[in-house]
# Entry
Amino acid sequence: MKERVDGPPPAPARRLPVSGVVAALPDFGLAGAFLVTWIVPNALGRRVVAYLMLVMLVEFLIVHSAAFMGSVVLGKASRREKVRSLVGVGVFYTLLIGGFALGFRAWWPLWTFWGLTLNRLSGVLVGHAPSGQERELLKRHWAAGVMLYLMGVFVTTLFPMPAFGITPAVVRAQQLPGGGLWVDEPQRVIAFGCIYFTAWGVSELFEHRWLGRHAMPDLD
# Structure
């Protein structure tokens, strides 16, 4: 008869946080829109390739502005000073996004950017300052955005991306302004959006815990 050896109880299975699942759903939805457009470009609209390109341009400015807004939110200034600083940063980026919107003849990116800006303002307006785990989550959020965006740019710029359904006729129908790699080969930006939002959604599921402390931005 074998002797029973008592040991530590098995660790409970770690469940995905509800907040992470909720935050990840819109990202997976966007990734799906990019994937569908990559394969069947007209499934969501005749000029959806151009609109999704604009989404990635706006996303770049949101990622870029996050460090500035983060330093304000995590700072020790008064509520009024924080609001004033955040509005100033928002106005600056509004001018940049306005240039993109004018080129694409679409004004919805302005409302999208300000919606996200007001979301960041909400915590300041009600007088709550991030502390403890909330501060660490905010830092991981900003660091993950920068790293995933740069990863997506690197992969889709250096490696060939299949065109799938994005034919020359589809490209002409987009009436894309300017020039450059994204304009000449728009399948690259569509692939970029698919990769970026998929990776961002997975990262959101786990609250960006794959980031070590050494990767955290110093926003205090």
